[in-house]
Amino acid sequence: MYEGFLKSYFGNIDYQHSAITSDASFRCYSRVISGKHNYILMDSDPDKLDNRPFVELNRCFTQSGLRVPNILYADLDNGLMLLEDFGSEHLADRLNTATRLHDYQQIIALLPRIASTPASDFMKPYDAEFINMELDIFWHWLICDWLALDESSLPDTQWNMLKKQLVDAMLAQPQVTMHRDFHSRNIMNVSGEWALIDYQDAVRGPVTYDAVSLLRDCYFKLPQKEFIALQRTSFEVLLDANLLPQMTFAQYSRFFDLTGMQRHLKAAGIFCRLLLRDGKSGYLQNILPTLDYIYDVAKCYESFQWLATWLRHDIMPKVEAKLSYQTV
Predict the structure, then answer these.
(1) Looking at the DSSP assignment, which residues form a beta bridge with residue 125?
(2) Do 244 and 98 reside in the same domain of the chain?
(3) What 3-state DSSP class applies to 68?
(4) CA proximity to 134, closest of 261, 278, 221
(5) What is the pLDDT of residue 27?
(6) What is the phi/psi pair of residue 31, to 5°?
(7) Tally of CB atoms within 10 A around 35
(8) How many other CB atoms are found less than 10 A from the CB of residue 240?
(9) Do 101 and 79 fall into the same domain?
(10) Based on CB atoms within 10 Å of each CB, which residue in 104, 185, 250, 288 is the most buried?
C-alpha cells in the first residue's frame, strides 16, 4: 500500500526504502532514501491506532519550541506518514561516553518547555481511573498471566491500598503536560540539538513523571552519584520555572519516588504484555532491572515494606526462573 503513497510524494524521482527497527507499538518504520535526502516512513495501522494525536501533538510541541520530526506528507486514512529523518543517534547510544552527564543536563533543561506545552484535546485525562488502569497492567499481565500465580494467594488487599497511595501522590502534584515516554530511546541528538520522538501519548499529569522517566530509565541505570546530582538538577530547573509552587526538595523526592513506582509497575507489566499479546520477546530482559527500581524505592518507605519483601522473596525469584527457560 505504501508504494503508491511514496510514488504520490516523489513522483518520477527515484527512491529506495528499507525497514528499520519498529517500536513497542503497532507502528512500523522504514528509511527512505532519495538522492541525498533521507526520510522516515511511518506505517501506523488506523484500525489499531488513532493517528490524530501524533499529528496534533506534533503541532503542540513544535509551537512550544521543542524539536520533533516534521510531518512532510500524510495519508491518515491509511495510517501513512513521511517524516523528517533525525538520523540514528539516540541518547541511548551516548550513555557510555564522556558527555553523558552534560547530555543529561541539557535534556533536563527541556523539562519546563514540555511541562508548559498547552493542553490539547488529544491528551487523554490522566486521572485516577487511568492511573489505576496502568497499575492493573502489572497485576494482570505479569502476575496473573505471565507468572500464572493463583490470585487467591496474592496480597490483593495491600495491592489495592498501594494503588490508592500512588494515585493520591500523583494527583497531589502540579499537573503539567508530560511526554510520558521521556527516556533514552526516545530522545535523539540531531546535529547537537536534542529532539523528541514517540510523543503521541502525551497527557496532562504529575510534574515529576518525565524526570522519573529520564533518570530512572528502564533501559539504563545511572550511577548513583550521577542520579543524585541530576535529580537535584531536575528539581532546581522545574522550581526555577515556577512549576513546583512551595514544594521542598524532600516533597519532590517523595513524589518522584512514588510516581516512579507507578511507572515501573506499569512498565514491567507492559514488557510481559508485549510478549503475550504482541509476540515481542525483546523486552523481557528489562523486567528485572525495572523491578529492582521498585524494590529500591519500596524498601525505603514503611508503608511499602510488604511490597519490597514480596518482590524480593517471591516475585523476582519467579521472574528469574521464568527468564532462565523463556524461549519465546
Answers:
(1) 204
(2) yes
(3) coil
(4) 261
(5) 87
(6) -95, 130
(7) 9
(8) 10
(9) no
(10) 104
Q: How far is residue 89's CA from residue 191's CA, in Å, rounded to a whole number?
A: 10
SS3 301: coil
Residue 187: beta bridge partners?
Answer: 196
What phi and psi values does residue 18 have, to the nearest 5 degrees? -145, 145
* Amino acid residing at 134: E
C-alpha cell at 180: 510520558
Which amino acid belongs to residue 236? E
R_g of the chain, CA atoms, integer Å: 21
Where is the domain boundary, 58, 84, 110?
Answer: 84
Give the pLDDT confidence of 232-288 residue by residue, as tens digits: 999 999 999 999 999 999 999 999 999 999 999 999 999 999 999 999 999 999 999
Same domain assignment for residues 112 and 247: yes
Residue 139 has pLDDT above 80, yes or no: yes
Pair 45, 117 in one domain: no
Query: Could you give the number of structural domains in the chain?
Result: 2
Predicted local distance difference test score (pLDDT) of residue 325: 83
Q: Is 77 left (phi over 0), alpha (psi -120 to 50) or beta?
A: alpha
- Which grid coordinates are listed for 68? 520533533
pTM (2 d.p.):
0.94
Cβ contacts of residue 296 below 8 Å, gap of 6+? Answer: none
CA–CA separation, 255 and 173 (whole Å):
7
Range of the domain at 194: 91-325
Looking up residue 24, the CATH number of its domain turns out to be: 3.30.200.20
Q: Which one, of 19, 54, 17, lies nearest residue 38 by Cα?
A: 17
Q: 267 phi and psi, to 5 degrees?
A: -60, -45
* Amino acid 2: pLDDT: 81
Where residue 156 sits, what CATH number does that domain have?
A: 3.90.1200.10
pLDDT at 149 (0 to 100): 96
Q: Please give the Cα distance from 204 to 124 (Å, whole number).
A: 8
